[in-house]
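Why predict the complex rather than its parts? Because the way molecules touch one another can change local conformation, and only a joint prediction can capture that. The input here totals 591 residues.
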Amino acid sequence: MRRQKVKLYVLLALVLMLLGIAAFAPHLVPCDPYEQNLSQALQAPGRGHLLGTDRYGRDMLSRVIMGSQTTIFSALLLVAVITVTGTSVGLFCGWRGGKLDSFIMRISDIFLAFPGMVFAIAVAGVLGGGILNAVIALACISWPKFARLARSQVLMIKDAPFVAAARLSGSGGTKIVFSHILPNILGPVLVTATLDIGTMMMEIAGLSFLGLGAMPPIAEWGSMMSSGRSMLQTSPWVILAPGCAIFVTVMLFNLLGDTVRDVMDPRQSVQHVDRR
Amino acid sequence: MKKYIAKRLLQLIPILLGITLLSFALMHSASGDAVDILEANRGGVLSEEAKAKAREELGLDKPFLEQYAVWMKQVLTGDMGKSYVSGKPVFSTFVHKLPATIALTIASVLVTILLSVPLGVLAAVKQNRFLDYLIRFLSFIGNSLPNFFVSLLLIYFFALKLGWFPVMGNAQGWKSIILPTLTLAIAMASKYTRQVRASVLEELNKEYVTGARARGVREGRILYFSVLKSSMLTIVTLLALSIGSLLGGTAIVESIFMWDGVGKMAVDAITMRDYPVIQAYVIWMAVIYVAVNLITDILYHYLDPRIRLGQEGAA
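Output of the joint prediction:
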């Protein structure tokens, strides 16, 4: 357990560093990520440009750093939105029960009946390009997962003695839900949310890659890779730099998710199965 | 069993209605002006009068639910309208492109099984030894790679540098399906290797395994005849459930490899704002997804003697 905690703190530090880079991206870039310089186009990585330049002569390193802002913050925004809406809906449904609950759950069934990306592609297609629209599209399709999770957790503890005690001591519904039930279901919700960050980041980048997310010239890893596709043979760094950035970032968030799960919910951990 | 199937089929009705209503509403809100899009695509300029007439012809002046009912009737007879771009019937285009997507999906599932089952079992048997760590590490990497990055890497190394496979298209027979299949299979295999490992480990820790070992049954026999047999049920179910999401996940890979399936069709349709095509794609993918999941569920219930016999005993 101690080793897990140390691992968690190390990963948290790394993620915070990444967030720091993303937040202060405009001050960290060595060159202007949007400044075109056609005489410098498609330079291989080297002294002047550590990661080379793209076809408009823009510095890849600066664009990757700038892109971290778009990609990471939109993924975090998306996960925050679906966690909060999904959990609120789930809390409400689980606590209230009755007809409204079954109605909302049927609606969530309908959303769950679509293969994720298919619906996201359609929504993004209808709304048009733009990173915010990609976030909206993915949020539409992803909230039911959290609603289901929160609801099942509420149903599990709804009849626990401590809830009955709170009720007997005169607490109202709202107070019970927010100060007794919510803190008790937060663990699994947060674990799922952390594990989702990496996936969501890949899906946002995927939509941008298809031209349904961030629009050029905005620096975003998925759309940077998409616009570099035709130069794969001659200048692979145009693809490799943002690709590796996504890979490392997603891996870091996935590692964090796994570790958070192991620390908060040892029952589900891989290590637990091993130790038996 | 029959009762269970009937119940599941009944539950399907509101879901299917919901899917169609939602897709219809989505496209309705977007293509509010189908006539304008038609006009823009054909490059003509229509008078307001002609536009109003065209709207009347398309039924766009009627209330929403009425339009939905009319449209639904057409869908049930296999008529999903005509493409704004090509003018061809959408449904037949979809049916024409579906086999390519299905071929890609089946190939990916097969490769996934070939990769994840042996690797997962190996990792479970060699638990906490070097091989286990290596397999877990590789599956972790595979899980963190977006499929568009994987496909570009595969194209770079195997098509551009080594020249083993074509870069795109499905013209070159079996050779052209390999890279897109690998792309999809790498992501899936990374996920399922973990699942196979976990379920085999769980099974290996059960008492009957200890019992068999105590009776001197050889380890190989226990593994192949008892453990694999009982953990396969879970694994097969998970894989079957993944077929549905795979059908949807192929869009990016199809458009990178220029694979002429429904995913590429949808992506192309979005750039052209060809709403009837997008609509057909969304609805049919959802229907296929729901159908595959339903069949898997029923099969699972049928194959698991605990559930099948338990139910019949109760009934």
